[in-house]
Amino acid sequence: MDRPFLRLGSGPLHHQRVHHSRTISAFLNQFPLLCGHVVFKRGKLMHSAEKRSWSEAFGAFIHPRVITMLFMGLSAGIPILLIFSTLSIWLREAGVDRSTVTYFSWAALGYSFKFVWAPLIDRLPFPVLHGILGRRRSWLIIAQGCIIGAILWMGLTDPAQNLTMMAFAAVALGFASATQDIVIDAYRIEAADTDLQAMMSSAYIGGYRVGMIVAGAGALTIAGLFEAEGSYQPFAWTMAYGCMALAMCIGVITTLLIREPAVNRTDSKYFHETSDYVRFLAMFAVTVIAFILANLYAGDITDPLKAILHDGGMISELAGFIAGTLKLAISIAVAILVAWLTTRVGLTPTGMVRETYIAPVKDFIDRYGKAAIIILILIGVYRIADIVMGVMANVFYTDLGFSKEEIAAVSKTFGLFMTIAGSFMGGVLSVRYGVVRILFVGALLSAITNILFAFMAHMGANTIMFAVVIMADNLSGGLATAAFIAYLSGLTNISFTAMQYAIFSSIMTLFPKILAGFSGTVVDAVGYSWFFIGTAIIGIPVLYLVVLAGRLTDVENPNKDRTPAKAEG
After folding, report:
1. Bridge partner residues of 16 (DSSP)
2. What does the mean pLDDT of the chain come to?
């Protein structure tokens, strides 16, 4: 008999007869039955879209929205390396010690906490520019302008003379770049129907990787052209960062040329008067300051605890994790307390806070009910196999005996292009077969490819095997990421796009990164082979979660799940 099949998309309900076949295509056609039959038995008939043809799938490449995301990805990929690896090389050339260099990675913490100010992007129309460009484009142009300003600030600052000023500039760049990411994510979700999200995600990933090449190899090449051999030349880095600021104009031009997404939002009860902005921003600023101060002084409590745990026989990594978690918990608790007190004293109306921060979370829970827990767990662990393994990857290559040149050529350069290819493959297959199916396939391949690393550990420094493993790992990673981003996009509500997606993207890496912190300890205990096998095993439950989430949720009908919700006052 025919059964409805589950697919992330839009359109009328269709049925498709499943034919038995041993081909991959047949598997992809039959997989939705795993996700959809329980829902059908419960009487909750899923909405699905007709399977797209290959011509339709590849034709999505030239869709204007897809091309737009390619350039937006480029704009998002440039700033990140200007904070991390490129800046690290500059600082070392300037004579900054290694411990201080590592502290500069904190400048990118904004990427992990962007959900804190994401609601502002959703609720606050930017004065003046909102009427000219629209909500998303106005915030985009402001964020991009701030990025360019921060890059120029860094370029004109010599860390050898004023390291503190460079730190402030790096933090400003991290904050502005994270803000741009928030707006781009919101724009992508609102700009097209769910069917096109996978391809737009693929284009974004591809553009992002190209941007990283520009800010990495490109910036270093430019700096090398303007410096004398063996001597530190601040002017060389000024020129490199100046060129990166110029490259950001691609994003600015793209923002000015594109159209604002045609989305009907429920107007806010607040933010119509200047006083509304002032009160809310004052509350936000006070809360952020409270978080920072609490984080600084909480060390007086957590540092002794870390020492006690370590002296008691606990491994340093675990002791540090417990102390760090407690420190973060204290900081968050203080920030929440301060935010609550500001509302109690009348600085910010309770309804304004509820509309901005509470309503997006409540909306998600209301739409998905108990299934929201399954969805959040899936989001939190979907990339666990890749992230936990990836932390040890470069160390593994070095320990095997590969040279820096080999690692750069195979892992960084060849791997980069394989990731781009994988992302576009994920986009095409998601349009062809549906996002949920490719989500499952991506998780499966990510786990399987980790086993290849175990074989590689036994073979030693074999260049051919190295290339094969990198190709498989990066293709599967790109495919899985493209499908996953499209899946997350389908979960959001148009009224709270920025906030909800920011929460999802933060949850996506939180637990895997925490677990990844113990990777070195595990390798020391069991060796590389069993470590990689273990990372494959922990990816297996993800497959069940994909099926379970497909059974319990209806993310297929955008008219149900992504319609504007009434703002709470």
Report:
1. 3
2. 78
Q: At how many degrees (to 10) do helices 528-537 and 435-459 cross? A: 170
How far apart CA 84 and CA 241 sit, in angstroms, is 13
Nearest one of 476, 492, 473, 340 to 412, comparing CA atoms: 473
452 to 82, 393, 449, 542: CA distances (angstroms): 33, 12, 5, 19
The DSSP secondary structure of 127-165, one letter per residue, reads TTHHHHH-HHHHHHHHHHHHHHHHHHHHHT--TTT-HHH
User: Which three-class secondary structure state does DSSP give residue 15?
Assistant: strand
A 10 A CB-CB count for 274 gives: 9
Quote the CA–CA distance of 432 and 252 in Å, as a whole number: 33
Reading the block at residue 537, the tokens are 């095993």
Contacts 24+ apart (CB under 8 A), 524-533: 527/457, 528/392, 528/396, 528/399, 528/453, 528/454, 528/457, 529/454, 529/457, 529/458, 530/454, 531/392, 532/389, 532/450, 532/451, 532/453, 532/454, 532/457, 533/450, 533/451, 533/454
Output the CA angle 346-350-352, nearest 5 degrees: 105
Give me the CATH code for the 367-561 domain, please.
1.20.1250.20
Q: Mind listing the pLDDT tens digit for each residue in 202-250? A: 888 889 988 988 888 888 888 888 876 667 888 889 999 999 999 999 9
Class in CATH terms, 58-262: mainly alpha
What pTM was estimated for this model as a whole?
0.72
The answer to whether residues 305 and 349 touch, using CB atoms and an 8 Å cutoff, is no
DSSP 356: I
